[in-house]
Amino acid sequence: MRRRGEIVIWWVVLLGVWLASLNAFSYAELATAAALALPCAFAARAARIAARGQWRLAVRGRSAVHGLRFLPMAILHDTVSVLRLALGRDRPEDDSFDEVELRGEQALATIMVSTAPGSVVIDAGADHLLVHRLPIGETRLTEAVRK
Fold it and tell me: Do the Cβ atoms of 122 and 132 come closer than 8 Å?
């Protein structure tokens, strides 16, 4: 039953991605999307199993999961700061690269740091991220994922 449930979830997500990318809706597109999303759902499940992936995050100690509470404010802060930077006359040219040592899950930390508009993860190691930052100041999100 679990297997079917996961395949159905993948099918719905993949169908949604296909339909979201359409310029104009038609029933032919819906039928094609529904048909082609099914083998892709099986492939997605097989890939997750092959990669020994799990749906549960391994939370040990103070991990990046605890930093999720800082994500909305970091997105708001970075959005406003990036807009100010783009619209301002004086644009500082001192963006930087920073190596962030991780305290928890690498994948979750990568997603969280890259979600905020002021930074993007360029490279990831087992216990660190290489992050490119705009000169807009650091948020508590980075502190939360930092070791």
Answer: yes
Task: Report the alpha-carbon distance of residue 63 to residue 57 in Å, rounded.
Answer: 10
Ranges 34-38, 67-71, 93-97, most confident: 34-38
Task: Name the DSSP class of 51.
Answer: T
Please return the burial class of 83, using the count of CB atoms within 10 Å of its CB with bins 0-12, 13-18 and 19+.
Answer: exposed
Q: Which residues contact 82 (CB under 8 A, 6 or more apart)?
A: 117, 118, 134, 136
Look up residue 24 and give its DSSP letter. S
Rounded to two decimals, the pTM is 0.54
| C-alpha distances in Å from residue 15, one per residue of 1, 40, 54, 98, 122 | 21, 10, 22, 38, 30
Cα 130 to Cα 96: distance, rounded to the nearest angstrom: 10
The mean predicted confidence, pLDDT, of the chain is 81
- Name residue, tokens 């997500």: 13
